[in-house]
Amino acid sequence: MRTSSLILFLAAMLVVGGATAQSTEGLRAPSAAAEKRPGDASKSWTINFDRTAKSDGQIKLLVWQNDQDAPTEIVVPITKGQTENSIALQTRELFRDILGVKDFETNNQKGNVFVRIKHGERRFSVQVAENTAEGVVIDLYAR
Predict the structure, then answer these.
(1) In terms of residue numbers, what domain contains 79?
(2) Which of 24, 34, 84, 103 fits 138 for a cystine, CB–CB 3.0-4.6 Å?
């Protein structure tokens, strides 16, 4: 009975074990899929940073606005030891500098950055194209 239980357990682990939702840790180079417009578009997004950086690197975010053919690229430089709160603050400032404050409202709280359209019904998408900072996990949520 023990052998069959062990085999059943191992089979279940193989089927279930490898699925992680939207984790971007270790995403090294931009893929061809990262250059395609994502299907999800929303009036507001939450970018969640988790964990302290274990190495220097950068995070490249693409902001796809529905009225533009090419994405706006936002590159966040990361230093070893930088915390998720510091990364979120730096990302917020870069979003404000690059996208401006006229059309977008950008705030942060702890390790989260909140980005939303100020006026109208326009929608946009946010995509992680590259993450070379080891240890930093990024999750994106359309709200």
Answers:
(1) 39-142
(2) 24
